[in-house]
Amino acid sequence: MRAAGRALGLSQPTIARRLAAFEAGFGGATLFDRLPEGLRLNAAGEQLVPAAESVEDAVLTLERRRAAASPVLSGTVRVSTGECAAGFLARSLSGPTTTALPSGITLELVFEPGHTANLARREADMALRHQPPETGDFYISKAGTFACAVYRRRGADAGAWVTYTEEQAHYAPARWVQRQVADTRRPVALRASSMLMHLEAIRAGTGRGVLPCYVGDGHPLLERLTPPIPEIAAEYWIIVHRDLRRAACVRAVIDWVKALFAEQRDVLAGFA
Fold first, then answer.
1. With CB atoms counted within 10 Å of each terminal CB, which end of the chain scores lower, N or C?
2. Which 3 state secondary structure label does DSSP give 255?
3. pLDDT for the residue 34
4. pTM here?
């Protein structure tokens, strides 16, 4: 019940009272078993799940379509994406670009490792992801590609590697670095779970590591050691639920992201 309280923004006593009132509406039969470890849906409750899910889907659809009908070009647009793309969008709000987001819109960037925002539930209005979904009622458009290369502190004798943690060994850059470690027999100086940690370590001279070219090429203390590495280039796709695609704010952010990727194509590709 604590988790439900956090999700709903309500206290446990309030949730307990509402749940009891809901059960009373079904003649007093309990729908949840009260156990020491918490509540568990029982057989009577399980029978109601399909109907409850249908009601939820209908309410979510109404909410998305209500938002899409608003012509007002102001408000917050929540974008779920990875650390690399989030950094690019954040710097582009007032960085070296001629493409401006309408002044009435607040961009909210959400980076949640290990969690994919549910667009149907409006956990985010839009997503930028490496892979488009295979199913679902979504508008999908390829935004562009982030090139990556190896960098070190300028002039430093940084032979050791900076890479991701063992839990992130499946990441393409981590796999590539591991092959280099095996081939060159150079040690790993640091394993860290975020690109910001990598950047700070490489900037300090701790070692060499893979960074997006838009980050490394523009940093005055870093020098590139390799051309862009094709096998670890990161594609990004714009994904929006079709009900929300024509909402004025969301449409403006879609157009802004597309324009940014087009305008900054050479920077992202490591050619600038």
1. C
2. helix
3. 84
4. 0.77
